[in-house]
Amino acid sequence: MITKGQVEINGIHLSYLKSGKGKDFILFIHGSGMTSENWLPQLQDARLTSHYTLVAIDLPGHGESSRSSADATVYHPKKLALLVEPLLDHLHAERFLLVGLSLGTTIIAEIKPPIRGCVGIMLASAFLLNDHITPADILTVGPYGHVMAATNATDENIRAFVYSHMSNEPIAERYILDYKTTDPAFREKLGKMMTDGTWTNEIANVQSWRLPLCIVMGEDDSLMKVNYMDSFSPLWNDKVYFIRNAGHFLNAEQPIQFNELLFSYAGQQFK
Fold first, then answer.
1. CA–CA separation, 92 vs 136, rounded Å?
2. What distance in Å separates the CA atoms of residue 261 and residue 168, rounded to the nearest whole number?
3. Which of 60, 38, 101, 78 lies closest to 186 in space, CA to CA?
4. Fewer CB near the last or first residue (10 Å), C or N of the chain?
5. Rounded to a whole number, what is the largest CA-CA distance in the chain?
């Protein structure tokens, strides 16, 4: 059974979905233009919910969470990262695993110092930056890439961008709907972050957690270069995982493979 919850943190009303009954938590953070419902294939997985409490948030400006009425700087990944620990405190999560998708991985990588109680981090479609790895080194967005940061993209351009990177029609249509309901100021702030270099050394940040990271990419992801993290350390089982027949939304495109990997990783890290 999935329930809805809400909490106010630093003046922001965060909405979240919750399922499962385990004493250990898995917190899911979606990417730009998505919502907590992106994680429904995980929140509804019988094996995961029988072992863990699963929580998926709506980022500010997304879904049912509040928008910033005056200060768009709250949308910077550094500021979004500050919401994670208070949320976990609200949930009374003593031990937890963080799972991010796309921009959600950036937010996790901007958390510092490490939060006590974290036993593992899973980064799906990982988007981690530092002085030597910039968005231009990772993204392969194509001719409609400006849609990612646009405040008033046309419906034609939105659909052209989405369908140039997604072949699964239900997932593509869901993303288009979520994109249109996302605060345009969020995308504008994301675009500025990608050009002004205001991120920290995110790769060093996640290494400071001293945990084996589970990094998983979609083999068919046309939105980014999927091999740039191959030499990262420490990796869980010393490798980056690749999911077949999956693109950027790998958790929804291939939920059986994704959930199996998550269950295996969580089972080992929560020992």
1. 39
2. 21
3. 60
4. C
5. 49
Note down the domain range covering 99: 3-140+198-269
User: Helix, strand, or coil here: 260?
Assistant: helix
Our measurement of the distance from residue 60's CA atom to the centroid of its chain's CA atoms, rounded to an integer in Å, reads 13
Inside any domain, residue 258: yes
Chain centroid offset of residue 161 CA: 20
H runs (alpha helix) in the chain: 40-43, 46-51, 77-81, 84-91, 103-109, 135-138, 155-165, 169-181, 184-196, 202-207, 250-253, 255-269
For residue 160, being part of any structural domain is answered with no
Domain count, the chain: 1
Check residue 169 and give its pLDDT: 97
User: Can you give the pLDDT at residue 68?
Assistant: 86
User: Domain with 18 in it: what CATH number?
Assistant: 3.40.50.1820
> Which letter does DSSP use for residue 234 in this model?
S
CB atoms inside a 10 Å sphere around CB 128: 25
What whole-number distance in Å separates Cα of residue 30 and Cα of residue 230? 23
pTM over 0.90, yes/no: yes
Per residue in 68-77, pLDDT (tens digit) is: 877 888 999 9
Question: To which residue do tokens 């990783």 refer?
Answer: 265
Which tokens hold the place of 83? 């919401």
- Burial class, 172, CB count within 10 angstroms (exposed 0-12 / middle 13-18 / buried 19+): middle
Q: Answer whether residue 215 is part of any domain.
A: yes
| Residue 252 within any structural domain of the chain | yes
Kind and range of the H or E element at 197? none
Length of the chain: 271
Q: How many C-beta neighbours within 10 Å does residue 235 have?
A: 16
